[in-house]
Task: structure prediction
Amino acid sequence: MNIETNIPVLATLEYIPYIDDTGQLPEQFQAKIGVYAIFDQEKVLQFIGYSRDVYLSLKQHLVRQPQQCYWLKVQTIDRPSRTALESIEQAWIAENGTVPLGNGEHKEKWINPINVKVLMTTEERENYQKPVNDELAQIKILKNVARRVEADILAVLETRGCQMQIRFNPKLKEEGLLDLK
Result:
């Protein structure tokens, strides 16, 4: 830890497996306030974020970017302070030497619900864009695309050994969005 600013040096924190041997996320971060760094399989930094509930944020990121979430480094703090959290986040980005893709050009993929419209097949897109102007048919198509994408995500997580319960918000599927409930 940097004594002058109380900002931990990212390189000195230990790597924590994103999914443990029992197929769960690290539960010690439930309801914990902190800053976290997410690394891919080769331990290349992908994203740095902060949260009032690190565990819930990690769960969201895993669903949104399952191929990028293999390792973590986390620093929790006792009292919520946006300034402290942002300072740690910025120090870690500076320490990395470059802005991780998840904090730069791919940020929306890490922080926003999954937009399934961009994942539609050609056939799904054609059916969705038919000039019938039938809103119910479009909602049905969006829900089906969302279910297909959801199944793909769950299959990837299953191959990773993930055992935790994952529930998506059913109301958002009608809008073509996937996010955890």
Q: What stands out?
A: The two ends are 36 Å apart (CA to CA). Residues 114-178 form one domain. The beta strands are 16-17, 33-39, 45-51, 71-77, 114-115, 177-178. The longest helix spans residues 135-159.
